# Entry
Amino acid sequence: MKINSLLKSGTDKQQRFDFVDQFRGLIIILMLVDHCSYYLNSTWEFLDPLDPLFASWGQVVLRYVSYLCAPGFLLINGAMVWWFYYRRKNKGLNNWSIRKELIQRGFFLILLQMTWVNSSWSGFNRFDPFHLGIIACIGFSMIFQSFIVNWRWELQLAVAVIILLLHPILIKIPYNPGDNLPTVLMQTFIDAGDFNKYPVIPWFAVALLGSVMAHGWLKAWDSDKKRIYWGTIIGACAIIVSILIRMLRGYGNIFPFSDFGSYSFFFDQKYSPSLYFNLWFFGWSVLVITLFIAISKFFPKVFLIFDITGKTALFFYCIHIAILGIFSKRIGIYYHQGEITETLIGVVIMMLIMVPLSKWFFKFKSRSSNPIIRMI
# Structure
């Protein structure tokens, strides 16, 4: 059945899209690589995430592959919010009923961040609710998106572009990180710091771009040929614009760089993201999704591992951090003691644990009617 037909149908059966699961699965595995590095790699003894400096190209690659994760997650989550809204709309639900469901899920993600996720980083050695992160950021973005997801895609694109253009100005608002209220407000929405490395405003713009892309992927482009064509054009254009912004070395940049092609050129700020960073990784996210669509036409089983992990991305995220936190940080197994080799061994071991767990949980979730389980 074509995607447009699925959108118009009134069936309650949950529909999945291979390229969405595959991309989400790739993102969660890259996040696993980054988190194994955080727990097992000695470079984190001195690494400043806000100003990274690496001793070797191997460490650069190990860190840089994870830079796709946050923009990728926000992009694909924004797309799925769009899909959720129109599926519910075509079943006859009114706007407020749909919005209520999205708001409830958004608050669930924020609560999950403040309880399980925050505590799992230490191996549940302490309860640390007063901190936000990527899961809370997704939750806030989902709540905000629920109020405009029914707007025309052109208006959503305009809002996203305006936010992206304004954020480099907003981030210059002065505040004292020692003052609690200004810190909470600034780092929740605009800046990054100890309270929150994922401020909502710039990442919400990426979620809106995902909503705009969903209009194409899941409705307007009614064939894989069109999705590949337009995805390639949009992704390439975003990358070209980001390079132009970077080369100008001014507005939209945060970290300086030495030469084009140097690692400093690619490592502009992630916390909070620069305009260059968001456009660069939006472009690459779209191109990677386009690549999944293209390759899957001829080799449908080649991305099976991503399909498995992508179907249970939130479960994978919550459990793999807890396991690493308990065995590495709390018990002390190789915590900040290894290098690249130890990190990659950790990735292999964690994949051997998490892939069977993910397969089990997907089957369990499919059979469950528990509303909490259904949101994980």
In short: Residues 17-375 form one domain.
